[in-house]
Amino acid sequence: MLQLREISFSYDRKCPTLEHISMDFQEGRITGILGANGSGKSTTMKIITGLLMPQEGQVLYQGEAVSMTKKALFQYRQDVNMVFQNPEQQLFYTIVKDDIGLALENLAYSPNEINERVSRALEMMDITHLADKPIQYLSYGQKKRVAIAGMLALQPKYLLLDEPTAGLDPKGRRKMADSMKKLVAAGTNIILTSHDMDLMYDCCDYSYLLHKGKVLAEGDKFQLFQKVDLLEKAGLEAPWIVKLHQAIKAPLALNEMDFFKQLLKGDVKW
After folding, report:
1. Chain segment 34-60, per-residue pLDDT in tens
2. I need a labelling partner for 153 at 20 to 30 A (CA). Which of 31, 190, 228, 241 fits?
3. Rounded to whole angstroms, how far apart are CA atoms 233 and 187?
4. What domains are defined for the chain?
């Protein structure tokens, strides 16, 4: 398990960015970190991956404190890695399959192992047809999927996704949501940040709500997302499914598809 224990961090000592936050990222689920701009989401993600060192508290992995030495982080980041919001930050080669295999080459994997892992990552992200395409000709959404595939080739146990649907059209958003659920079903644990509250409700099994660097609330979708007052205090809106549930007392659906199934069955009364 991956855990944060009493983490505090500040870019400016006079203004704390994170204050004594604790989170548990259990296996087999998508864990969301919610919050408005400036709440500390991105800082939390960078601390989890070791890009920033906490000034207080510890990051624990498999029950042990994560060492911030270069050697220890090198090993740790093969199990815990992040895909940034802007895919351009993580794409370096000209051809898709070469870029996905870049990290494996740097780790001195055999050509056969690289080919197998790249093929699997392409398949998992449903971009096998793009393997030989020049990256410069891909759409923004395709580049995001290539960047994620590059991390999947490392076979991480935890994959952190920072605003994975930002800049995507509705079709791209749906495909990304489906891909995340498939990854978790295949054994990859996901930690997710997004301003898209409908996406977070749909995908996240458990979430933490950050406000001004503190954990304001936590819980599963049936607990946290119904606390509309706390969401509003944190500068966020409740998902439309929750708004509808509270307005007309419709059964609280798991996601959009579940809601329309209830509607067709007659469970939702207008």
Report:
1. 999 889 999 999 999 999 999 999 999
2. 31
3. 35
4. 2-238 (3.40.50.300), 239-270 (no CATH)
